[in-house]
Amino acid sequence: MGHYIDPRGTSKEAWLRHHGTQKLVAPTRFREGNYVAVCLVDNGMFSAAGVCYSQEELMAFAVPDGRAKIWYYVPIEELAPLIDIQVIDELPENKEKSDDTTKTD
After folding, report:
1. Structure confidence by residue, pLDDT tens digits, 76-92
2. Where are the domains of the chain?
3. How do strand 47-51 and strand 3-4 relate by DSSP bridges?
4. Rounded to whole angstroms, how far apart are CA atoms 77 and 101?
5. Hey, which of 4, 64, 75, 97 has its CA 20 to 30 A from 44?
């Protein structure tokens, strides 16, 4: 299931320009440190800003399908107010960190 941002009081495009770092081409990794790939897709009548919460999701957005796409890396803490926090908690790097903190010797 996809996760999309829809900021209040501003357009997706303006929000991404302000909070994200635009990439010239599709990234090869859905996550770089505390940054997550977001794909802004032109669907004709409306745009969609899909959060790439996994490598598979990034690959699905990266498939050439005739729609214009602009890629951004956005800090996780900037995305948190816009998407379900559970999505962020389940990102692989966060999950590994939380798993590591529960291990005991």
Report:
1. 999 988 887 566 556 66
2. 3-102
3. antiparallel
4. 20
5. 75
